[in-house]
Amino acid sequence: MARPTSFGKDTGLQLRMALTMFMLGLVYVVLIAVLIASGTGAVVIAVIAGGMLALQLFASDKLALHAMGARVVSPQEAPELHAMIDRLCIQADLPKPRVAVAQTPMPNAFALGRSPKSATVCATTGIMELLSPAELEGVLAHELTHIQNRDVVVMTVASFFATIAAYIMQFGFFFGGGVGGGDSDEDGPGFLAVIVVSAIVYAISYLLLQALSRYREFSADRGAAIMTGRPSALASALMKISGTMERIPKQDLRAAEELNAFYFFPATSKKSLMSLFATHPPMEKRIEALAKLERQLQGSAN
């Protein structure tokens, strides 16, 4: 079997991202139509939605780093981390992202940014202390593959739709019939329609996001394994992180859950009973896929 060489182009992922954006755009158009029909001004909708999208695109990475207590570090502050990312970026033909470190014992890493040129890769002190250099290189290659595939920006934009729907539901419940901006008796049916459609849009957005998130993790695992040539090192990193995550205080995990879709490993200490809503595929499935790839790479080398 020929050794796979492309870790940056995953046709399955590209098709899924396009389908997700199309479906989200479709349900969002329906939501806007319902809002306008209920009496909410089109200009108001455009201003609020445009402002939130701009915030999501241009400030979400800074807000996420702040939420994690992370900061961008120089090569002098983290020479080994920078050197590792330098080597991987050369292999992946990627512009070097900003490098950040989060001071937390939770072993994890994530990538953020609206484009490869504006991306940031963050590693926690916990993951740098836990993993061997080969394992950490695999995790960083996983995050760089997310940037290469541009699925980070797709996840950022896609989450915008769910955020809008959630806010509309919250404001609707808080302010009641005032959503339509008119007489409460006349706006009652319109208000109810807005709440129902917003709830449907949120549910569809959430499910689409989770499905895309799980697939992109498989894709990034594959890209990282091919980039480094060591699928077993990435599998070893997954097992080490899983075992350590059980020892992280639950309050720390809960505080980090909002970024779960972007983490290398979900911030949870127990397996979810509702795997349909998981942001990551089961660790066993990821390790199984890496073991299969390991056999393929070994076969191609013989």
Tell me what you see in this structure.
With 302 residues, this protein is mostly helical. β3 and β4 (120-124) form a beta hairpin. It has one domain. It is built from ten helices and four strands.
For the report, how would you describe the main beta sheet?
A: 4 strands, mixed
Number of domains: 1
What's the arrangement of strands in the largest beta sheet?
Answer: 1-2-4-3
Order of helices and strands: HHEHEEEHHHHHHH
Low-pLDDT parts are: 1-6, 177-186
Give me the number of helical elements: 10
Helical fraction equals 55-70%
Q: Report the strand count.
A: 4
Principal-axes shape call: globular
Our estimate of the beta-strand percent is: 5-15%
What is the averaged pLDDT score? Answer: 80
Distance between the termini: 10 Å
Q: Mind telling me the C-alpha Rg?
A: 21 Å
Given the helix and strand composition, which structural class is it?
Answer: mainly alpha
Question: Tags for this entry?
Answer:
globular; mainly alpha; 302 residues; 4 strands; disordered N terminus
Explain the layout of strands and helices:
Layout: H1 11-37, H2 42-67, E1 70-72, H3 79-92, E2 98-102, E3 109-112, E4 120-124, H4 125-130, H5 133-149, H6 151-175, H7 184-228, H8 231-245, H9 250-256, H10 283-301
Parallel strand pairs: 2-4
Antiparallel strand pairs: 1-2, 3-4
Helix pairs in contact: 1-6, 1-7, 2-6, 3-5, 5-7, 5-8, 6-7, 7-8, 7-10, 8-10
Entry summary:
With 302 residues, the protein is mainly α. 67% of the residues lie in helices and 6% in strands. The chain has one domain.
